[in-house]
Design goal:
The chain is an alpha/beta fold. It contains seven helices and eleven strands. The longest helix is centred in the N-terminal third of the chain and has 19 residues.
Length: about 325
């Protein structure tokens, strides 16, 4: 949780350059959006091959990637109001590009979009000189998808009326959420436990799963709702191994090439027009472990259009290599 700045100047989305899911789509967010480069600190991100984007080199039966299930995991802590507003402002162009994705046969991509937050229930105690004292106590969405009264289900689909305005409403998740952010755990709950209740029916076996994480803090995901901590321990000292989250999504989709992710967080400790962000070391490690179907963008760029463009490029590239259901 960081202190927000007082104002945010929205940057207009411009230009058109083709990206597509084996498609005829020809719009990009910005002509100055650059491809992510590998880092040297274990947070390497994989460069999307621009030569592949927009190509029509799929098998004739076009069995791969006719559908996408997309989830946004948005930080709802006290410093995220400007980032949420910028996400909402950029979303119409995101949808414009997504709507131009077509299969090799010319059919539009069948997509779903849902939003949840980084907030997860947690209660901690601390051992202070041999005495156990209460620590943090927080309540969160636990992966439940955000909805409003206009929605007939827990997610949005391309045929829904007022798609962009409804997304803008539910993406404005507020800033009263937990200060111990757990984006990875929230994503796992959204696509694990919550599929049994509030989010039931969202994940389709024949769809590419894409997860977008947006946060200005380090990930502090843990698998338990109650923890006992030492006096000097921080959240990252007891956080769950990021590899366990990679395995969860591999198992969920029955294959590593059937899902993709885009993380928008702190590449380093940084400051922008959004305010301050902490280096997201664990999320960079997660992206590195996922590999070619993952991309990391800096939240300190001060505008999300480039990061969302990279997300779409990454999902598009994963779409071309999607393995049909077994």
């Amino acid at each position: 949780m960081r202190t927000p700045t007082k104002a945010l100047t929205f940057l207009l989305l411009t230009s058109s350059v083709g990206i597509a899911c084996g498609t005829t789509a020809d719009t990009r967010f910005s002509d100055n959006a650059t491809q992510p480069e590998p880092g040297s600190d274990g947070g390497a991100v994989n460069k999307v091959d621009a030569a592949v984007l927009g190509s029509n080199d799929r098998p004739e039966d076009d069995s791969a990637c006719k559908k996408m299930d997309l989830v946004f995991v948005v930080d709802d802590s006290g410093s995220m109001d400007q980032e949420q507003a910028n996400l909402a402002a950029n979303f119409p162009k995101f949808i414009d590009v997504l709507n131009k994705f077509t299969t090799k046969g010319g059919d539009p991509i069948d997509y779903r979009i849902a939003v949840t937050t980084t907030g997860v229930d947690l209660a901690t105690t601390q051992d202070i000189f041999g005495f156990t004292v209460p620590g943090l106590s927080q309540k969160g969405d636990n992966g439940r998808f955000r909805t409003n009264k206009s929605m007939s289900r827990a997610w949005l689909e391309r045929s829904d009326p007022s798609l962009t305005s409804t997304f803008s409403s539910i993406a404005n998740v507020g800033t009263n959420g937990p200060s111990w952010e757990m984006p990875l755990q929230a994503g796992r709950l959204a696509l694990g436990d919550r599929l049994k209740d509030s989010n039931k029916g969202f994940v389709r076996d024949d769809a590419l799963l894409g997860i977008v994480y947006l946060t200005d803090e380090e990930d502090c995901s843990v698998g338990s709702t109650s923890l006992k901590m030492g006096a000097t321990q921080s959240c990252t000292d007891i956080a769950e191994d990021t590899a366990s989250y990679v395995k969860f999504f591999d198992d969920l989709k029955q294959g590593h090439d059937r899902w993709a992710t885009a993380v928008i967080a702190g590449q380093t400790d940084c400051t922008s027009s959004f305010g301050d962000a902490a280096e997201a070391t664990r999320l960079k490690k997660f992206v590195s472990q996922v590999g070619k179907t993952a991309v990391f963008s800096s939240i300190c760029d001060g505008d999300l259009s480039g990061a969302l463009n990279k997300a779409l490029q990454t999902f598009d590239a994963a779409c071309k290599n999607f393995t049909p259901p077994r």
